[in-house]
Amino acid sequence: MAERILSYEQALEEVLRHARALAAPATQQRVLLKDALGRVLAEPITAPRDHPPFDRSTRDGFAVRATDITAGASLRVIGSVRAGESWPGPPLASGHAIEIMTGAPLPAGADAIIMLEHVAVEGETLHLSQPRKVNPGEHLVARGSEARIGDVVLPAGRRIGAAEIAVAASCGAAKIAVYEQPKVAIVPTGDELVEPGVVPPTALTDAQIYNSNSYALAALAHNEGAIAGRLEIVPDDRQDLLERIAQASMWDLVVLSGGVSMGKHDLVEGALTEFGAEFFFTGARIQPGKPIVFGRMPKSGIVLSADEPVPGKFNDAPWSGSWTYFFGLPGNPISTQVCFHLFVAPFVRALAGETEMTPRFAEAHLAEPVPANPDLTRFLPAELTSAYNAASVRLIGWQGSGDLAANARANCYCVLPPHTEDFAAGETVRVLLR
Fold first, then answer.
1. C-alpha span between 241 and 304 (Å, rounded)
2. Is residue 222 helix, strand or coil?
3. Contact present, 219 and 337 (Cβ < 8 Å)
4. How many whole angstroms from its chain centre is CA 100?
5. Contact 329, 255 (CB under 8 A)
6. Is the pLDDT confidence value at 131 over 90?
7. SS3 assignment for 347-370
């Protein structure tokens, strides 16, 4: 298999090229609005009426005719109207005012609101507390200014958060159509791995570590709206690995961790090749995460049990004619998580039917100088501190891409591009949000 090592930008574009070509999920579900958080909208939501459905007051005050508000003028207060009711009387005549509450419909004949704080009321007479001009439309939201009846207020492909739920509720949508969640198979590999809870820490050998990657990957996939399946740990054995790949290939996406470097026992790429995989890249010039691989493989159409022999099964099994995409991620935990944010998350979003796929970046000022690395784009654990007028980012001290404690102290990754002089304190840099 020929190596294909890409820059970060090239690797991301390769992932996005395939992600954009994916069809929207074929299966939809209708769910209660309260259960829709984190799902992806499958059908647009349209306004069933104008929003707002009337000229709405945005302040507590008085509905007036703007031309009546002149220096020394006084108006007669003839009633009041609050949110949830309409003015029952005739249109407002010149020289009159109607007390109005925030959210109430503007009475006919009025064209502006003067705020309560700007007037003095004595009995039924209203005076300006100080000279002021009121313009037509002041402190009003005009009917239909937010949306007209039939307008799309939420397009299909939008991830549903609190703001989207509020819009849907304002349109009276008790249930909405969402796409089926993609199913992501997570395959941890390595002889050194042990499941938490199976062996107590005191019984681990010096060469054993707990399997943290599949738990982290499952959590990350869940955050992107997927259903994550953590498959059993695969030892560094070709036959076991081929069997697990066959099982995983029936899912929507396969994410393997470990076994993608150049070592004697790094068997993932070889097993994928034997399975008939096509590789789009076999590495990215990033730190951490350089050994990442991305490609697709034929769905096996079979699910092998543990006691079935593997040799010969894959060449003889009928191919369904469809593909399953896969990512092979490095085994070091921070490398795994960085690669998920950079490459896997956009692909999961596409599988979920989301139209906004790209990683989320922001900008901040470096809190301290950082030496350059001319060859790699670096994504280093960092702490982003946001203030009202500025945002700064400081690298977290770490012991390399296996330092989970350092990664937990971070809340973002500082992005340091290659081919650059040392980075000075105060310099603006990108930040990968997580």
1. 12
2. helix
3. no
4. 41
5. yes
6. no
7. HHHHHCCCCCCCCCEEEEEECCCE
Q: CB within 8 A of 332, min separation 6: which ones?
A: 288, 400, 401, 402
Amino acid letter at 136? P
In angstroms, the CA 409 to CA 134 distance is 54
Would you state the pLDDT for residue 264? 59
Partners of 112 in beta bridges: 64
- The predicted-structure confidence for 253-298, as pLDDT tens digits, reads as follows 999 999 887 655 579 999 999 989 999 999 999 999 999 999 999 9
Statement: residue 218 has pLDDT above 90: yes
Q: What is the pLDDT of residues 12-50, one digit of tens each?
A: 999 999 999 999 899 999 999 999 999 999 999 999 999
Cα–Cα distance measured from residue 257 to residue 188, given in angstroms and rounded to the nearest whole number: 5
Which pLDDT tens digit goes with each residue over 317-371?
Answer: 444 458 899 999 999 999 999 999 999 999 999 999 999 999 999 999 999 999 9
d(CA 349, CA 356): 8
Task: For Cα atoms 44, 47, 52, give the angle at the middle one, nearest 5 degrees.
Answer: 145
Helix (H, G, I), strand (E, B) or coil at 271: helix
Q: How far apart are CA 403 and CA 107, in angstroms?
A: 65
Measure the CA angle with vertex 345, ends 342 and 351; round to 5°: 140
Per the CB < 8 A criterion, the answer to whether 426 and 369 are in contact is no
Measure the N-to-C terminal CA separation of the chain; round to a whole number of Å. 33
pTM here?
Answer: 0.89
